[in-house]
Amino acid sequence: MSKLLLIFCFILCISNISSAQQGELEVKGTSSNLYLEHVVTPKENFYSVSRMFNVPPKDIASYNSLQLESGLNVGQTIKIPLSKNNFLQTGRAAASEILVPVHHSVEPKEGLYRVSVNYNNVPLATLKKWNNLQSDEISIGAPLIVGYIKVNREQSTLATRGIVNTSVAAASTVAKTEASKPDITKEAAPPVKNPEIEKKAEVKTAQAVTEQPQQKTETVKTKSNINFSGGYFKQLYNDQLRSKAPVSEAGNAGIFKSTSGWQDGKYYCFNNEALPGTIIKITDNTSGKSVFAKVLDIIPDIKQNEGLAVIISNSAAEELGNSESKFDCALSFAKN
Q1: How far is CA 189 from the centre of its chain?
Q2: Burial 251-268 (b: 16+ CB within 10 A, else e)
């Protein structure tokens, strides 16, 4: 009886491991040290895992401080390093390779900007395309594609879970390949276009993609005449307050350089109290002027930002008529 129980437990354990392996590949670590976790199943060894993830066996052993000759144990969790050899965020894969998406699970108070920074500063526009996002707002726990692991279509068991696009730029949706037709390639379906969304310019910050100048027939606003009556997000601020109670805060404001806002009034900011995507009304206590800025993320934890309640883009500061590095302000936003 006890032997049967042990056999049953062993089978159940193996079944659970196998099921876990079929889930999404979740990336761990940040930028310079990204990796996946893999639970060893029966009959797997360094070489079979190597073929699965396109990583040399000796690199897997070294990364896990293991001896290659010692082998692996069933149920053992090992780390799979992601490097330029098997991890793609830009460029093309070889014709013999399949791209398998790797995901990041969104954490509380984490915005798209922070995800971008933590994963090699992948452009916000690219993250949106990969995940078919229509705005920069993301939900806690949502699995975001942050890159692709490239594996050999003939050797890796992950190949059937990937996409057949050879270009990461075109990899906006995940489409499973058919085992019976390994040589057929087809483009992933592009995201459905929304005319209203298309009009919205991409969020730009000092660490984001450089904004391309737009050709306009009307007079371009400059630092000397910028005035958007508070900015593009004023109406959205009013909409947010209709369903949530307002929160007030006071303190010093800092300024960061940005290419956004000079021509369209789309102002952005960093704040520790409001969730990413929240619109904050920022009032200069000296001039009495106000602007409305969308929160990108929490305030970067560096010495020059100590004691600041908010950091706003320089275009927003210009509309306030304040070009100082810091100034006294009042904040108002919808409660989280």
Answers
A1: 21
A2: eebbbbebbbbbbbbbbb
